[in-house]
C-alpha cells in the first residue's frame, strides 16, 4: 500500500535497536579478561613502586576498596548501578558500546 515507505516488522516493533538484558558467554569471558587485566596492572605498579621503596596513596586506596576479579560477585562484574532503572542495575554492555560495536568510553565527558 505504501510502496517503498512501508515499515518492516522488525523496525516498527523496535527489535532492531533493543539491547539484550543478558550478556552472552563470550561477552562475559571478555569482561572477566578486562577485569583481570586491570588487576594485573595494579599488581605490576604496586610491585614496581615497592621495589623502589615508594608507595602511592591512590594505589593503596584502590587495593583496600576494590575487590579483585575473583572476589567480585557476578552482579558487580556484569552490571552497573543506575538509579533510573527498575531494579537499579543495568547491563555493562549497554553503557560502553554503541550500535556499531565501537568502544565509546568518553561519551558525555567534557574535556
Keywords:
111 residues; mainly alpha; 45% helix; 5% strand; disordered C terminus
Percent of residues in helical segments?
40-55%
Radius of gyration, rounded? 20 Å
Structural class: mainly alpha
The spatial strand order of the largest sheet comes to: 1-2
Given as residue ranges, the uncertain stretches (5+ residues, pLDDT < 50) are: 97-101, 103-111
Q: Total helix count?
A: 5
Q: Report the sheet with the most strands, covering strand number, pairing sense and barrel closure.
A: 2 strands, antiparallel
Mean pLDDT: 78
Q: What is the rounded distance between the termini?
A: 50 Å
Please provide the count of β strands: 2
**Share in β-strands:** 5-15%
Shape call: elongated
Q: What is the H-and-E element order?
A: HHHHEEH
Describe the protein.
The protein has 5 helices and 2 strands. It has 111 residues and is mostly helical. It is elongated and about 75 Å long. The C terminus is likely disordered.
Task: Please give a quick description of this structure.
With about 110 residues, this protein is mainly alpha-helical. Helix content is about 45%, strand content about 5%. Residues about 95-100 and about 105-110 have low confidence and may be disordered.
Topology diagram in text:
Blueprint: H1 9-13, H2 25-51, H3 57-65, H4 74-78, E1 79-81, E2 89-91, H5 93-96
Antiparallel strand pairs: 1-2
Amino acid at each position: 500500500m505504501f510502496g517503498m515507505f512501508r515499515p518492516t516488522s522488525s523496525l516498527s516493533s523496535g527489535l532492531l535497536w533493543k539491547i539484550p538484558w543478558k550478556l552472552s558467554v563470550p561477552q562475559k569471558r571478555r569482561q572477566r579478561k578486562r577485569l583481570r587485566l586491570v588487576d594485573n596492572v595494579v599488581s605490576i605498579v604496586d610491585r614496581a613502586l615497592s621495589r623502589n621503596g615508594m608507595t602511592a596513596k591512590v594505589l593503596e586506596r584502590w587495593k583496600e576498596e576494590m575487590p579483585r576479579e575473583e572476589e567480585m560477585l557476578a552482579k558487580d562484574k556484569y552490571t552497573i548501578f543506575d538509579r533510573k532503572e527498575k531494579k537499579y542495575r543495568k547491563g555493562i554492555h549497554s553503557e560502553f558500546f554503541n550500535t556499531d560495536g565501537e568502544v565509546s568510553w568518553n561519551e558525555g565527558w567534557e574535556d
